[in-house]
Design brief:
The complex is a heteropentamer, with 2 copies of chain A (about 350 residues), 2 copies of chain B (about 230 residues) and 1 copy of chain C (about 230 residues). The two termini of chain A are about 20 Å apart. By secondary structure, chain A is of the alpha+beta class. Chain A has helices at about 40-45, 95, 115-120, 135-150, 165-180, 195-200, 220-225, 225-230, 330-340, and strands at about 1-10, 15-20, 25-30, 55-60, 60-65, 70, 80, 155-160, 185-190, 200-210, 210-215, 235-245, 250-255, 260-265, 275-280, 285, 300-310, 315-320, 325-330, 345-350, 355-360. Chain A has 9 helices and 21 strands. Chain B has one domain: MetI-like (MetI-like fold, Orthogonal Bundle). Chain B is mostly helical and about 230 residues long. Chain C is α/β, with parallel strands linked by helices. Chain C has helices at about 15-30, 45-50, 65-70, 105-110, 125-135, 150-160, 205-215, 215-225, and strands spanning about 5-15, 35-40, 60, 80-85, 90-95, 115-120, 145, 165-170, 180, 190-195. A 5-stranded mixed sheet of chain C has the order 2-1-3-10-4. The chains are: A alpha+beta (about 350), B mainly alpha (about 230), C alpha/beta (about 230). At the C-E interface, helix 2, strand 7 and helix 6 of C face helix 3 and helix 10 of E. Bound molecules: adenosine-5'-triphosphate (2 copies), molybdate ion (MOO) and magnesium ion (2 copies). One magnesium ion (MG) binds next to helix 1 of chain A. Chains A, D: InterPro entries: AAA+_ATPase, ABC_transporter-like_ATP-bd, ABC_transporter-like_CS, Mo/tungstate-bd_C_term_dom, ModC_ABC_ATP-bd, Molybdenum_import_ModC, Mop_domain, P-loop_NTPase. Chains A, D: Pfam families: ABC_tran, TOBE. Chains A, D: One of its GO terms (molecular function) is ATP binding. Chains A, D: Keywords: ATP-binding, Cell inner membrane, Cell membrane, Membrane, Molybdenum, Nucleotide-binding, Translocase, Transport.
């Protein structure tokens, strides 16, 4: 566990002021606009901000108290992926990766070994190259691997995949998610892509002007706080479901989300396994009658619990399906045509569902 | 071609230059590191102090060191008590004098090398668990190897060419404290130009070759390797 | 050096070093069990070093002042001070074709572009040169360049940078060009070159023996040949 | 116009080999996985690859021919946003922005002036800060502005917005798009986010292992080449429409896409104005009968022209609606249930439409 | 306290140090730039050549310069024809000698400074249209100001402390070529210790103050400003 209660001023124009406890196990996503203090926060934890005031406590050990550094930063057992790769130019990739092996044993449970890191990040063809021979994305992957291999207590990642292409990003986030499940240390992951965080985070902190605007469990936050998290176009509900059975002919998996079920692409999980799903609000349409003869497989029914007008003449409709809520974004015009009100029963046509991850 | 005393002078000079360079390469890095990173108020004063030996003419520096090393002074007599021999007119005195004299040449290039190491890399190394010593040996030293080589060659060359300090402190005793520069000057003074020219030629050719090799080898590994990455 | 050899180290003023070198070679041939090591520098440097405890056995100065000062300071072996030679001043005009004598010398000096002398403050030959110029009413001389010692004075002329200068008679073998003229002894105070044995010497006996050799006939001939006058 | 015909080897492991003509006016997007040679390509144009072999011709002027540099790189009138910001550490932001003003007049038609750049990139609070006082995103914006202000002939942008938050990214890409319309020089824009390129590019180059895999007009490419451009989940059709009229009450605009019309959020364009739209395939469902009582406003009809199986038991259905094609991604199961075949008439329920930009 | 010749010596020394430093700061940057960027095969040889004056004892260097400056040598006679005065025993000769002597101190710090400038920044500047001259004045110079200051102070200090070369070339003419270092040594040699000490003290105090000021002012603007950005 990592407890922070810190304050830092950067010459009049910026003040970081926050308290938070980061739990071990699972990733805490840190989200916020450019200049909101995300990197500064990580620097404070890493001991790189000399003017820091406040306390940083990791696993009951004071790293920093008031203005005093109590644990030197090289003794903190950190892994830090900086926003710039900061590879050592005099070492080749392999030596960069193994830089910390000379003094850190890295035997903390669940940590990956070098073979796993090289394999999952696809670094094997690069090992003997020197950093100036790498492309931007390749550098970033090496920097990520280097940090993972040095971590003992806390993992800090500052936009670790911003220069990586989409496909690698998907693969790497999936791996990082699994890793975070088996490696019980605090993980802090900065990103300005909310979908990246949806895929891997357990908790979320939304920062703005050096302060925590919102913080909490990702699932609950995602249903409340669209205005902070994403442009209206990207709003969506996070759902938790359980694998019920598989239809191998059509490559589909049936999930139970409480009282009703959803069909999604075949998932590689056993029956009974819990999964996390995202249903984008713009992909959910409402209907008063049960639609027939449509290519849409997933039709749920529920009750409208909230109608929230959004900017631009559209409405975000929250529909309760049993315990969970689904969001639908429709136009003002549709709302009027269908005369929707709270408490009204409706059918939901769910056009797309994204599997985010196996849940905890 | 060379007399026995010339050969002795060459040996003594090389020994002096090697030992001085070695000691300076141990002594100067901590000073240079401190100077390049401290925020202390006395920094610029210490910096000026380190540069002082440059300003005092070597013969004058030698004169004051001679006064300091004399058995009449506390330092000189303490040394005499401890070791049984005087500092002046002995090889150890020459070493100390040369260290004083070449200190700026060791400190300055190192300091400016250290200063230019990207601070981000040092931060990266410490978060990766490198202790200050490890940061030095595994990051700073490899990145500033060039400055170390420059510092070492400057010290070496400067000690070989040293004249005033050694003349004052060493006393031109053949086989004991007579170094090349003094032997050479002796030849010039005694109007033995032939011997002077040949000694000078050997000195120049030898030094040129050594420097050429050092710079040449170093250049091989150089290129634009370290550029535009961060 | 052989184990049984006695080594004596002599500090010698630069101008006398070549001569002393020849003398010590002679001496060592006669006394195989002795070795003479010469350490040369300007008189002033040697004096300073001796004051600060330099490990020399004897000191051959270019003047009489420094040996006397050392004697006063109690650093010399009592009664060891000897005058081993008198320096002789010579005028060398490098580009001059005609003959020089006491009538033409003033004119010549007046016409000379650069006149080289040793620094009167630090070198006895320089002081003597100054006395000569004073006698000719040419002091202060406007186009004077000063060598640090008598060797450098010669070099200034030798390399062609100065046209004429006052050098030591001992340097005549190095002069291949132009005219030289020996300055009359009366024009300057004698350059009395003295030597002393140092009190701290561990080899006083051997050194004394060397001093005896310096005063021998054989040695005196060598000194005379080198261009020095002998003490009366 | 910028014509390339180049070849470059990077020590055995990588060869760049391509020919292309970049037109003036409009952005050419460059897309491809990490290490495919995007940055190397831009470096070749900028004259930063000493080993380059081939020709680079800009506006009929040879910049490079075979192994000869014919125009020194400082005389090429480039604007180059490097993958790393490379701000001058000894200059504050304003001086970084105006760095090129001492020798370049930058009077090329359509180029932005410094006030416009500062305003659009939101740099005014940063002008007096020095680069080390900026956050990662802020640095990137300054680097972008600096390049824009120096450009005379060609603009090269290497992932210029990778560290910028989503909202700024939207605003900046919209502005860059407009700029590219009024500033007729070749624009090269590297990104590994296909949606970013959809929003701003006119042409697209897809690179892979140092070669051009695909190149051409974005609209036509986007319908053909899903496998290169995006993960199946992100496939979509690009459509061109014309503004027909506005419904100010519901804040809707009616667009004509040939024979049929679509309703989208109120657009700030005059009637008759052409616009570019993206319709994600996953947001289009097919129906055999016309759906009623649904919140979906846009229901089109068309004829199936192609059924392409995708990996994972789903099918990409191409439907011709007049001249244009719309893509729909459905499951194999739906396809079988509805017994879809080529030539069959269907209704399309279009749940979401993204306005990409006003078109050329 | 000081005699008129002492004061003249101080003036001459300062003048010599200023002029030498100025000329070296014009001469050395191109050499250093070339050395830090060329891939030419002769680089390491030129590098060694530049370091040579360090190795030759100054008095010997001075002796050979004296030979070179003599009206019998081509260089010396050409100069005589051109200017009507000899190089030796004149201020201009001292300047040339000092330039030779201090060249390595100007070139080496600059070279290592230039070498450490991030190549990416130079690339950025050229794509922004900066000509090589502009790259130098607007990027490289500001980023290596520290190296320039070090080079200049080393040259200045070293010229002030110069003894052997000036002794050989200058002819010790009071008011014309007698610099402090020689005046000081003259005092020591002629046993005027009091005057020697006071001149040395003034020299040390003055130099210390100048260096302190230079390093102090420079330190103010330094801090960690240029670090960890790229
Ligand atoms: N050394 C400094 N001196 C002064 N201000 C600073 C300094 N470092 C950062 N800042 C300011 O602090 C604020 C937060 O910076 P920080 O790097 O933490 O932002 P960020 O959230 O990481 O942004 P980004 O997503 O762009 O990386 C910025 O407004 C920046 O200008
Ligand atoms: N100087 C070099 N020496 C050897 N190989 C190099 C050099 N520079 C780049 N490469 C190689 O060339 C390939 C292309 O690199 P480039 O930087 O162009 O990729 P990119 O498409 O920009 O990738 P990214 O999206 O990660 O920035 C990489 O595989 C890299 O390893
Ligand atoms: O001491 Mo000397 O003999 O001046 O040259
Ligand atoms: Mg940041
Ligand atoms: Mg790249």
């Amino acid at each position: 566990m990592l407890q922070l209660d810190i304050k830092l001023e950067h010459q009049q124009n910026f003040t970081l002021d926050l308290s938070y406890s980061f739990q071990s196990g699972g990733i805490t996503g840190i989200f916020g606009p450019s200049g909101s203090g995300k990197s500064t926060l990580l620097n404070c934890i890493a001991g790189l901000e000399p003017a820091l005031n406040g306390s940083v406590i990791c696993n009951n050990c004071y790293w920093h108290d008031q203005q005093l550094v109590l644990t030197k930063n090289h003794l903190r057992g950190l892994g830090y992926v900086f926003q710039q790769p900061r590879l050592f130019p005099h070492l080749d990739c392999l030596a960069n990766l193994t830089f910390s092996q000379h003094w850190r044993s890295n035997v903390s449970t669940g940590s990956p070994d070098i073979d796993e890191v090289i394999h999952e990040l696809g670094l094997s063809p690069l090992l003997s190259l020197s950093p100036h021979q790498l492309s931007g994305g390749q550098r970033q992957k090496v920097a990520l691997g280097r940090a993972l291999l040095s971590t003992e207590s806390v993992l800090l990642m500052d936009e670790p995949l911003s220069a990586v292409d989409q496909q690698s990003k998907q693969q790497i986030t999936a791996w990082l998610y699994q890793l975070s499940q088996r490696w019980p240390i605090p993980w802090l992951y900065v990103s300005h892509e909310i979908n990246e965080l949806y895929r891997i985070a357990r908790e979320l902190i939304v920062m703005s002007s050096g302060q925590i605007q919102l913080a909490g469990d990702l699932l609950s936050l995602s249903q409340q706080a669209h205005q902070f998290l994403s442009s209206p176009a990207d709003a969506g509900a996070l759902l938790v479901g359980t694998v019920v059975n598989h239809d191998d002919h059509y490559g589909l998996t049936q999930l139970d989300i409480g009282s009703q079920s959803l069909l999604v692409e075949r998932l590689p999980f056993n029956c009974g396994c819990p999964v996390r799903l995202q249903v984008p609000a713009r992909d959910v349409s409402l209907s008063l009658t049960r639609p027939e003869g449509s290519s849409i497989l997933n039709i749920l029914h529920g009750t409208i619990t909230e109608l929230a007008p959004l900017t631009g003449h559209s409405v975000l409709v929250q529909v309760a399906c049993g315990e969970q809520h689904i969001l639908s974004r429709i136009t003002q015009k549709s709302k009027d045509q269908l005369q929707l009100t709270c408490g009204m029963p409706v059918y939901l046509q769910v056009k797309s569902i994204a599997l985010l991850n196996q849940t905890v | 071609m060379f007399s026995a005393t010339d050969i002795a002078a060459i040996t003594i000079t090389l020994k002096l230059a090697c030992i001085t360079t070695l000691l300076l390469m141990l002594l100067a890095p901590p000073i240079a590191w401190w100077l390049s990173h401290t925020q202390s108020k006395v920094r610029s004063f210490v910096e000026a102090l380190v540069a002082m030996p440059l300003i005092l003419p070597p013969t004058v520096l030698g004169f004051y060191l001679l006064l300091l090393f004399s058995p009449n002074s506390p330092v000189g007599s303490a040394w005499l008590q401890l070791t049984g021999s005087t500092l002046a007119f002995n090889f150890s005195g020459l070493v100390i004098g040369s260290i004083f004299y070449s200190l700026p040449f060791a400190v300055q290039p190192l300091q400016s090398g250290f200063h230019q190491v990207d601070h981000g890399l040092i931060q990266a190394a410490t978060t990766l668990g490198a202790s200050p010593w490890n940061v030095f040996t595994r990051v700073i030293f490899p990145l500033t190897k060039r400055s170390f080589i420059i510092a070492a060659t400057l010290c070496f060359a400067h000690t070989i060419g040293e004249f005033g300090v050694v003349l004052m402190l060493g006393g031109n005793i053949p086989g004991k404290t007579q170094v090349i520069s003094i032997a050479l000057f002796d030849h010039v003074e005694s109007l033995n130009y032939i011997q002077a020219h040949s000694l000078a030629a050997v000195l120049v050719l030898f030094s040129l070759t050594v420097l050429w090799l050092v710079y040449g080898l170093q250049g091989k590994k150089r290129q634009k390797k370290f550029s535009s990455v961060s | 050096s052989l184990p049984s050899q006695k080594v004596i180290t002599i500090a010698v003023a630069s101008n006398f070093k070549p001569t002393l070198n020849r003398l010590s070679e002679q001496y060592q041939q006669q006394n195989k069990n002795q070795k003479v090591v010469l350490s040369s520098a300007a008189t002033g440097v040697l004096f300073t070093q001796i004051r600060q405890g330099a490990p020399y056995d004897a000191f051959f100065s270019a003047d009489s002042l420094r040996p006397k000062l050392l004697e006063h300071a109690g650093l010399s072996l009592p009664n060891s001070r000897i005058t081993y030679a008198h320096g002789q001043l010579v005028l060398w005009a490098r580009e001059y074709g005609g003959s020089i004598h006491s009538k033409t010398v003033k004119l010549l000096l007046q016409k000379t572009t650069q006149l080289s002398i040793a620094n009167p403050k630090t070198a006895p030959y320089g002081l003597a040169a100054q006395q000569v110029l004073q006698k000719l009413s040419l002091w202060p001389y406007p186009r004077l360049v000063m060598g640090h010692n008598i060797a450098q004075t010669l070099q200034f002329i030798q390399t062609g940078n100065a046209a004429a200068g006052f050098v030591a008679k001992a340097q005549l073998p190095f002069i291949k060009q132009g005219q030289t003229w020996e300055i009359p002894q009366a024009w300057y105070q004698p350059i009395e070159q003295q030597a002393i044995i140092l009190k701290r010497s561990q080899e006083t006996e051997a050194t004394q023996q060397f001093f005896n050799f310096i005063r021998s006939k054989k040695a005196q001939t060598i000194i005379k040949q080198a261009g020095y006058d002998l003490p009366k």
